[in-house]
Amino acid sequence: MDAARRKDFFDGQFTQHERVALVAGAGGIGTEIACGLGLAGAKIALCDIDPERLFLASRRLRQEDISHTTYCFDLSDTTSCEELIASVVAALGRIDVLVTATTHNQRTPLLEVNKESYDAIMNANLKAPFWVSQATARWMSTAGHPGRIIHILSINATVALAGVAVYGMAKAAMSKLVAAQTQEWTKRYNIAICGIHAGFVRTPLTEPLQANKAVMRWIGNHTQVGNGMADPFDLRGTVLLLASPVAGRFIAGAVVGVDGGFMIDPWPLHT
């Protein structure tokens, strides 16, 4: 097979040419996912609650010469979600892919969690992805437009780690949401839903961990790839697979681990 045919095959499997991808959450992971989808040919709509974070993400996309529009909304509010979807469709014509990467965390022992921190964590990690995916699916189903929804989850959905219980609760609920949305939307509306269990990733959210040598050593000892932490761009390839109606055609309801083998927790002795 010559080089041109190989390139055509690869492009046909993973291209996002002329597709529209909405990325909700412009943090480190969301920005790199938006870059990956944009470099694969998608027109990008990027949304975040924080104007400064949105500005920095937009600058990163401009560096890659990626066509994009930005929107500042609080996606834990249902009205804001409906306004966002209407705005994206008005500007770009449709939505083919939604990635929910909204996140927030406060490392607090359970006995010290207060209502304000609980609500902030749940708003970003559960309410926002729930409402924005509902609004997106409502548009897709009404328009008769097939689509793909990818939720960025966390290994905290299945592993209990001290100080992040509320965050883990939200991510565990999102794992169940992937299954429920698949059951209700995939066959009926041709909307495929998947999730990614991200491991420890170098983002502003994990800076306290990165500064702790003992914690980094522990993470490294339990991870089989590299030094224990992924970089945000390490999630790009999995997102491109799940977002593709060709390469990912028969993938629905799956939650894929991108954790460097952390969840294996192997026997510590090597023979």
Explain what the structure shows.
With 271 residues, the protein is α/β, with parallel strands linked by helices. The chain has a single domain (3-257), classed as NAD(P)-binding Rossmann-like Domain (Rossmann fold). It is built from 9 helices and 7 strands; from the N terminus they run αβαβαβαβαβαβαααβ. The chain has helices spanning 3-14, 28-39, 51-63, 78-92, 115-143, 165-189, 207-210, 213-221, 236-243; strands at 20-24, 43-48, 68-72, 97-100, 147-154, 191-198, 255-258. Strands 3-2-1-4-5-6-7 form a 7-stranded parallel beta sheet, with helices on both faces. The longest helix has 29 residues, at 115-143. The protein is globular, with a radius of gyration of 18 Å. The N and C termini lie far apart (42 Å).
What features would you highlight for this structure?
271 residues, alpha/beta, Rossmann fold, 7 strands, 47% helix, globular
Secondary structure layout:
Layout: H1 3-14, E1 20-24, H2 28-39, E2 43-48, H3 51-63, E3 68-72, H4 78-92, E4 97-100, H5 115-143, E5 147-154, H6 165-189, E6 191-198, H7 207-210, H8 213-221, H9 236-243, E7 255-258
Helix pairs in contact: 2-3, 2-9, 4-5, 5-6
Q: What is the terminal separation in angstroms?
A: 42 Å
Could you say what the CATH architecture is? 3-Layer(aba) Sandwich
What share of the residues lie within helices? 40-55%
The tally of structural domains comes to 1
Under CATH at level 1, the class stands as: Alpha Beta
Could you give me the name of the CATH homologous superfamily?
NAD(P)-binding Rossmann-like Domain
Largest sheet: 7 strands, parallel
Beta-strand fraction estimate: 5-15%
**Radius of gyration (Å):** 18 Å
Q: If you consult CATH, what is the topology? A: Rossmann fold
SSE series:
HEHEHEHEHEHEHHHE
Individual helix count: 9
Structural class: alpha/beta
Low-confidence stretches: none
Could you tell me the number of beta strands? 7
> What's the average pLDDT?
93
Which descriptor suits the 3D outline? globular
Q: Main sheet: which strands, in order across? A: 3-2-1-4-5-6-7
